[in-house]
Every structure is written in C-alpha cells, then in structure tokens.
Specification:
This protein is α+β, with helices and mostly antiparallel strands and 717 residues long. The chain is built from 25 helices and 22 strands.
Length: 717
C-alpha cells in the first residue's frame, strides 16, 4: 500500500505527546509516537544494514528472547533492494515506511511471522516481487499475510477499488487476524505522515480512518493503535476543538497534579494490606479529554488522567478493589467489572472511582500485567494463533512453515482469536449485492461499538450488537429460515419481534413451518445487524406482492356463524321452579366450573362462572345470587380465545384442528392484527364438557398459537 509522504521536519499535524515529563516515570503505556521516526535513521552497521533493523530486532527480542532474527534480516534485504530508488513524497527512502510499520508491531509484541510480512507488505503491490517469490522465500504464512494487505488495482476496479480492497482484506482477516494488525500499523504510520498531502486528501483519508480503521482497531482490542489514530484524525477533522483540548492539557501540565498525591495514598494503602502492585498515572489522550469535556462541561484537575494499578493475579485485582473501597469513598455508579464479563474485544479490567480525603475524585483501572498487555495490543499480543501453546513462541517464518489458511484436513482453518462480530461481518458481506452497499453497510456496522451476548433456548449463545432485536437474533441463529419467524419468548415470556434484547437475555425464536411465509417491511424498522437487513431487503425485492400485504389497511373483524347448529342442553340445575336456565355468553361456563346464577327479567336464571367479572357487578348492585348445580353432563357451549402470531392460513389451521377434535364452530371472530399478533374468539359446541382440556391443548399445538384461554369478557358474536 503506497504509504503517504512525510517531512523529516515534522510536517504532519502537531500532536502533543500524551504524557508530560512529570508522568513519565513508571508509565506502562506503550508509546508508539515516541519510538516513531528516531529508529529509522542512523549510520549503517558493519553488516551493511541501517540501525533501523537493529531497533526492530531489539524490540522483538524484548517480547521473544529466543526469536530467530535471520528471517527478519532476509526480509529486510528483499524489501530494501526491491524498494531501492523509490522515494516517499517527502524525499525519504521508501524503505522507511515498511520499517516503521514493522517497528510499531514489534513494540506491540507481534511474533516473527507478522514482522516478516510487515517488512514485505508493499513489495508485491509496488515492486516487481511476486507472491510466488514471497512464498518460496518465506513460506505460505507470510505469503498469505502479504496478499491479504495488498491493494486491488484501480485500473481493474475503478471507483470500487477501495471498498473491494477492504472486502478482500476482511475476508483474509477472517482466516488470519494478523492481516488486519498489519493494516492498522500501516495506516497509523501513514496518518503520522500526512503533512505534505493536500488538505482535501488528508480529510478523505482521515474520514475513512475514523469510519473503518478506528472501529476495527477498537474491536480487535489494539488500544495503543486506536488511541493514536483517534488523536491524529481529531487534529485533521476538528482542528479548532483539537486546539482547545491541547491548550487545556498544556495548562494542566503547568499546574500541580492531584493524581500524584492520590497515587501515593493508594500505594501506601496497598503496601499496608500486603498487596504487591504497581500504581501508575495514565494520562488521557486528546480525544478522551475532549469526550470528558463534552460530557461534563467543566474539567477538574483529575479529569486529565486515571490511575492504573497493575498486579500479578486475577484475585489480586479484587483484593485491590476491596482495599480501595474500604479506605476511600467509592463512587458506586462508576464501578464496572470487565474481568468477570470481558468486553467483546478481549478487554479485561476493573473500573472504579474513589474520592480522596481532599475531595478529589480519581478514576482507577485495576488489571494484571497480562490483561494490560492485551488491553494495549489486543489480538497482536496473542501471538501466532496457529502455533500450539507448547510450540515455538516466535512463530518464525520460513519455507517449512505450516500451510496457509485452509490447509487443515477439514478444509477450514479454525482461528481461536476470531471474534463473533467478525464472523457476522464475513457472513453478511457475501450477500452485499454491490460495492456501494458493502461500503455503506460496513461503516454502519462498525459504528455499533458495543456488543451483547444472548442465550439460545438450546443452550448456545449469540453475539449481537447492542440494541439488537428479536429479528436480529432470528437471522443470526436461523439465517434465511428466519423469514418465517412469527414471534419469540424472551426470558420465558412472549415478546414481539421488535423487542430489544439485553445482555444475558434468553431468547427462543418461534418459526412457522410455512416456507412461503416472508418478513414484513416493518422488520426493517428495528433491525441492527447488516445480515438481517440485507436478507429482509433481498426477500422483499424478490417478492413485491408479499411486501405489499402488511401495508394494506387493517382487515375488519370477520364473523363466521354456524346457523344450523342446535343449542345444547343446559345441564345446569337451579332451585327456582319453572325457571328458564341460560348459560352466560360472557364466560360460557361448562361442567365442572364453579358457578352461580342471577335472576334476570322474565324470570330466567343466567349462570356465570364464579370468577366472571359480571358476578362482581351483580353483587355490587345488590342482586341476590341463585345456587346452581350441574346435572348430568352432556352437550355444552364454550367460548375460547386463541392468541397467536399472525401468519397466512392461521384461521384455516385452527378451524381444522377444532373440527378434527369433533367440536362444532358456532361462531368465530378474527380481530385485526396488532404488532403481528392476532386474537381469534371461537364459540364452540362440545359434545361433552370433559373434552374441553384436550381441545384447548390441540389448539395450542397449532403453529403460531401461543395461548388459548376461556373468554372472560362479554361475547361480541
């Protein structure tokens, strides 16, 4: 990838180092900016190589003491000779760019294979070196990584070159996350060196970095790259806000820092508790300070940094937390446990805030040294995901390397570091119909910066973006089968498909067996995942007649009456001579319901179930009840209410189930659907009241029906 030019005198936007001199001591944060350019120039060594490769080797050996450096030197020789004569726009030798990218990754702890590929990452794109030559000299692993970050030519793809390059890179990342590690380091060095570019080109590159690369760095957990990229983009796209933030930080640097005193108090507390810990002051970067200012308006002295407490074991993290909350006043609303529940980007830490004796509130991060390394370097810190735990740590590259992704016996290379969001992205990108759709959808997907985990009814889990609905869960679990989804149960309770899911929810999706069913256009109003949106849009485009049906005016209530049906014998006996006995239509009592009666006009007695609302009204009016007993069991009439999710042919399936049970339909009322739910009210003639429970079970077994109950309101039939 053609790295953008820079000026040796620092023509790039001026970004003040995040830490001030008073905070440097003991600082655990990886300072990529400080390393930057200094390592790239210097006298040639005895072997004819510049000091730059020596700096890379030194940084690499700090993480991998036994690493084989010979392959790095061979890669440097090939990169230097192939790029010889090429210059960056600033006049620097082009080799300074791959060296800078490699140095960034070496400082983050990347293994040898990644560093080898980063030295060669522009050779195939910008020189006469071929992938076959890379494969022959350095093995399939390095060849795959180099190919993954190689741009597609504009000559072949035109305006689609950039989105298609990112699509290619993401697919390669799906098999090997180290591809994206190299791309992020490459973009960081390019962003550092945008100073000689035209302002409009700087803005264009910064916007792509903001919309795509920074979210990817966040999702891969590479905070050291993400924070510097954010500051560089901030300086280009919001120069005025950047200037204000810079002035605020400069003013704070000149003042006394209360965090120094609080840090010493924390050290004393932990020493007395016998907890071995390193307490550091971690300054906020520019964008972080800007966000705090936007959130709170006024900044206090402790808002410019946070305390970082590093310990040896997970249990020590909670020990530190207990001591801090005992000896200081905790701000409970600020407590978050990302150790018990890690973020989707591998991040683990305890977050809290405490008030000191002087009233200053300090935010505190508590983590182990291992957690801190992963928090800063993300997937880069995990090393080579394809080397067994007891295998070589260096992941050295060479012709004898393991095969490229896909060489396993089952044809699929399992990557233990592939996060769920990346798997979802790889699935939906296959369905994106054109580069523009892919590009816009990718940006929208990456803008969702939080993820939740929900549990499936079968015990599995689904990773979804925050704000996802039951529709998103349906497509994530069932793919295109979700077109026939008619509802869901969330935590055991029935819920509409528009229900927004929360982290830890259990969701059971209800599907109909009707393959002709399709999604409603309304679903597009509450989907968050690109895969679901693309699938719904594609179905609606292919079935325009199906898409129009849900938008039609609500159907009026339909009443179907079986006029030829005879009335059943009442079966109720009252102690009122010559009285006509009628069963109330509001609750349709049947044996062996507990019942009571009331005398109405004409001397007739109306029988109600004791829990019928009409009974309470009659008693409130002072109407005396009449004792009712059931006589010999026989025919009876009952009104049932079936609650269901709307779908085609539901009425036909319900009436068929009722008829199969040997029950006659006297009348049926179908109410207009509401939020994809429908209510059917049936007045039925049963040959025997004892068969009512079995009939209700039969109706509940009809697909889409989630409840059948006795009517408890005045009948409208």
């Amino acid at each position: 990838m053609s790295a953008e030019a820079t000026s040796p005198n620092g023509a790039s936007p001026e970004i003040r180092p995040v830490d001030n001199p008073g905070r440097r001591r003991g600082r655990a944060r990886i300072d990529l900016r400080r390393i930057g350019r200094a390592a790239l120039f210097g006298p040639a060594s005895r072997g004819g190589l510049p000091d730059a490769i020596g700096h890379v080797a030194e940084a690499h050996r700090a993480h991998f003491p036994d690493a084989d450096l010979a392959v790095l030197r061979r890669a440097y020789v090939l990169a230097e000779t192939s790029h010889r004569g090429q210059m960056r726009k600033s006049g620097e030798p082009y080799i300074t760019h791959p060296l800078a990218v490699t140095l960034i990754l070496a400082e983050l702890g990347a293994e040898t294979t990644t560093l080898t590929a980063s030295l060669l990452h522009d050779t195939v794109e910008d020189t006469d070196v071929t992938l076959d030559q890379v494969r022959e000299g350095f093995g399939d692993e390095v060849c795959y990584l180099v190919d993954g970050v190689t741009k597609l030519e504009k000559v072949d793809y035109g305006a689609a070159a950039e989105p298609e390059t990112f699509r290619k890179m993401l697919v390669a990342t799906g098999d090997d996350v180290r591809v994206m590690s190299i791309k992020l380091a490459d973009r960081l060095h390019n962003m550092r060196t945008l100073g000689v570019m035209r302002p409009e080109k700087q803005a264009r590159i910064a916007k792509v970095t903001r919309d795509v690369l920074i979210p990817l760095a966040e999702r891969l957990g590479v905070q050291a790259l993400k924070t510097e990229l954010e500051d560089l983009v901030f300086a280009i796209l919001l120069p005025e806000e950047y200037g204000i933030t810079r002035a605020l930080i400069a003013a704070q640097d000149a003042a006394a820092d209360p965090l120094v005193t609080i840090a010493e108090d924390v050290r004393k507390v932990l020493r007395e508790a016998g907890i071995t810990a390193e307490v550091l002051i971690r300054p906020r970067h520019f964008v972080s300070v800007h966000r705090v200012r936007m959130k709170r308006g006024e900044l206090c002295a402790t808002d410019f940094g946070r305390l970082l407490v590093l310990v040896g074991e997970d249990a020590d993290c909670y020990g530190v937390l207990g001591e801090l909350h005992t000896c200081f006043t905790p701000v409970i609303s600020e407590f978050k446990d990302f150790i018990a529940s890690p973020k989707f980007n591998l991040y683990q830490s305890l977050h809290t805030a405490v008030a000191s004796s002087c009233g200053s509130v300090a935010e505190v991060l508590i983590r182990t040294h291992r957690m801190h390394k992963v928090a800063e370097a993300g997937v880069v810190a995990l090393g080579n995901p394809y080397v067994p735990p007891d295998g070589p740590q260096s992941g050295s590259a060479g012709p004898a390397d393991a095969g490229a992704p896909g060489d396993e016996a089952d044809g699929v290379r399992a990557d233990p570091t592939r996060p769920g969001w990346l798997s979802r992205l790889l699935e939906w990108q296959e369905s994106a119909p054109d580069p523009d759709t892919f590009w816009s959808t990718l940006r929208a997907d990456l803008a969702q910066d939080r993820e939740i985990t929900v549990f499936r009814a079968d015990g599995g889990t689904l990773g979804l973006p925050a704000g996802a609905s039951c529709v998103d869960a349906a497509y994530a679990q069932h793919g295109e089968r979700a077109h026939s989804c008619i509802g869901a149960r969330v935590n055991g309770r029935l819920a509409t498909l528009s229900t927004v899911l929360s982290d830890g929810d259990t969701v059971q999706l209800l599907l109909t067996g009707d393959t002709a069913s399709g999604p409603s256009p309304d679903w597009l109003g509450h989907v968050r995942t690109p895969g679901a949106r693309i699938a719904i849009t594609s179905w609606l485009a292919a079935h325009p007649e199906g898409a129009a049906a849900p938008a039609a005016a609500p159907r009026p209530s339909v009443s179907v009456t079986g006029g030829a049906m005879r009335r059943a014998a009442v079966g109720a006996v009252v102690d009122v001579p010559h009285a006509t006995v009628r069963l109330a239509g509001c609750c349709t009592p049947v044996p062996p319901d507990a019942v009571t009666g009331f005398t109405v006009r004409g001397g007739a007695v109306t029988v109600h179930r004791e829990r019928c609302p009409s009974v309470a009204r009659m008693l409130a009016l002072g109407r005396p009840p009449v004792e009712v007993n059931w006589g010999a069991s026989g025919d009876c009439r009952v009104t049932l209410v079936a609650e269901a999710f709307g779908r085609p042919q539901l009425l036909a399936d319900l009436t068929e189930a009722i008829a199969t049970a040997g029950v006659a339909v006297v009348s049926a009322i179908v109410e207009p659907p509401s939020e994809q739910r429908v209510r059917h009210t049936y007045t039925l003639q049963l040959p025997d009241a004892a068969g009512l429970p079995a009939l209700m079970r039969t109706m509940r077994d009809v697909p889409g029906v989630y409840d059948v109950s006795r009517a408890q309101h005045p009948a409208t039939a």
